[in-house]
Amino acid sequence: MVGILILSHGGFGECLIQTVAHMLGDKPTRLRALGFTRQADLLLLEGLAREAIAEVDEGKGVLILTDMFGATPSNLAALLVEPGKVEAIAGVPLHKQ
Question: CA dist 4 to 8, 39, 63, 79, 89, Å?
Fold first, then answer.
């Protein structure tokens, strides 16, 4: 299974994970979230993101999902991309239905 890391503002990523766990009946093992605050130390977050990538990668790669393109989470994701191993997609929906 491809690992998934959600980089987002605040607790948005954790909310997505809770929703997935509710729909599937359990949280996928290779799924993590890392939330950003205004006071976040980007060097620390980069290290935490790299650790999370290592945790969720079982050899088939990692997909990073971020909330807003051009914001800090997606900019960090761009630094973490390794073509064919770690890929990123920005723009995970922020709206309620």
Answer: 13, 25, 5, 16, 11
d(CA 86, CA 77): 9
User: Angle 33-11-66 (CA atoms, 0-180°, nearest 5)?
Assistant: 55
| Whole-prediction pTM | 0.90
Q: Which residues, 6+ apart, have CB-to-CB distance to 51 below 8 Å?
A: none
**Rounded CA separation 31/8 (Å):** 14
According to the model, what pLDDT value does residue 40 have? 81
Dihedral sign for Cα atoms in the order 9, 15, 19, 22: positive
pLDDT tens sequence across 38-88: 788 888 899 999 999 999 999 999 999 998 898 889 999 999 999 999 999
Query: Which residue matches tokens 């088939």?
Result: 60
Distance between CA atoms of 77 and 56, rounded to whole angstroms? 15
